[in-house]
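Q: Predict the assembly, please.
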Amino acid sequence: MSLEKLDSNKVFGGTLTKYTFVSESLGGLKSNLNVFLPPKSQEIKVPVLYYLAGLTCTEDNGAQKGHFFKAASENGLAIVFPDTSPRGAKIQGEDDAYDFGSGAGFYIDATKDPWSKNYRMYDHVTKELPRVISSSDLPIDTSKASILGHSMGGHGALTLYLKEPKLYRSASAFAPICNPTSCPWGQKAFQGYLQDGVQEGKLHDATELIRSIPPSERRLDILIDSGLDDKFYLSQQLLPERFQEAAREAGHDEQSVKIRLQPGYDHSCEARAILCPPLAPLCVSLTFFP
Amino acid sequence: MSLEKLDSNKVFGGTLTKYTFVSESLGGLKSNLNVFLPPKSQEIKVPVLYYLAGLTCTEDNGAQKGHFFKAASENGLAIVFPDTSPRGAKIQGEDDAYDFGSGAGFYIDATKDPWSKNYRMYDHVTKELPRVISSSDLPIDTSKASILGHSMGGHGALTLYLKEPKLYRSASAFAPICNPTSCPWGQKAFQGYLQDGVQEGKLHDATELIRSIPPSERRLDILIDSGLDDKFYLSQQLLPERFQEAAREAGHDEQSVKIRLQPGYDHSCEARAILCPPLAPLCVSLTFFP
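A: Predicted assembly structure:
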């Protein structure tokens, strides 16, 4: 389970390193991740931000196109970029679609055969990665973590944050899928990966999840940035208003759940450039980005 | 010759737009470019930075991975990203190699058949693009321009700047090819594109060019950033020390020709992340990047 270094280079004063390891959570398949370490990590263990990428992506997209390193370097933050699914599970149909199987793990643990052996990205991100990082010699303090994602990875960031209050101090999401049980991408994924399909998918739906968390139980720290000229927003794959409405109904104020719908911006967090001031109000309790 | 808009999206408060047009300089082939406009361009015509990409790249690489837009947006600077060669000239062998033909125009005007009709990237960047931009309704003041490039595009930035004192106020280059007549990439390109091969290539070699420009004639403003862990530096494709030596011999001081050789950094300005603080001291005479 130890990390094997594949490649490393300096960037914005820090270091970006690609690792691979044999992932137990993914059924013994090899899995890659990129890790950015800021200069400050040479002195102390630094807090960490997990970045979850979207459909079709790998551990490289956010590292190459995310524009995060200058801010992370200046603010002493590590960033961990996992892959978006297992690779090479040799399941029939695994590579047939851009929105299911390889590159489309949806950050859930599949409960339906033949996917349930390998497609366990929830466990991979929430349990295995912190364990692997903590048992390595990486200067990262996994007890200080936040989570960020784009599109399918935004769905991942929101749901993992809502389900794991002890793991993450904040969640940020660019153009996230907010109500997957009500959109084609989410319905297809849940029907494919889960025994009880879309019904079971409600356990992994940010809009459903936030309904059941009263502010008295937990003060949330969520930021969503979504573009109004995003074709996936326009085709109702993202549905941020549903999440916003559910948050409001549950009693969360606009400071706890910030949703910015930005005219003129599209889905291109990774496709062409990032949507908004990167990481702007990411997390006051962890590391403050001005 | 007018610009046809293909795509546009907002990014860091500005706008990134992809255009295509029928390029006379490239023998009537269609050519693409990306143009970033900062918010300030809504009020006044803004200065422009040309970004020349490296081998295998297109107009998209710098726009997607360059990490330039936050700084450009804050500093009121447009960025123009041309392609790296003509496309679809239907010359035999055009697509056979990564370092010659398509994606490898070297920012020179070919003088050898069959390349000389279409492979005229020098003319394309120095004459046609400013003309096309000026005759469009883009809010860009092409009389205030600087030039930047990576690898083969760094060679382009240095040589275009040295040969066109009236066009560009500064040149910046990440991991540039500095002495192409002495390295395999440059020798192959010059032998292929130029009637008199490498000998003629001296007219397009930054190290040769800087020798003939005394400081009394022109105060230069050049910044080179190159990584010492760059495999192309190590395999002597880049040769920044040759350029440094020639600049010193010609009498240019280290303020006019700044060369930073950075331990730990590789060639990945575009491959994985940018090499150094982006655009840092790009150009004092044009727009100052802090």
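Residues 121-134 of chain B form the longest helix (14 residues). The CA atoms of residues 233 and 239 of chain B lie 7 Å apart.
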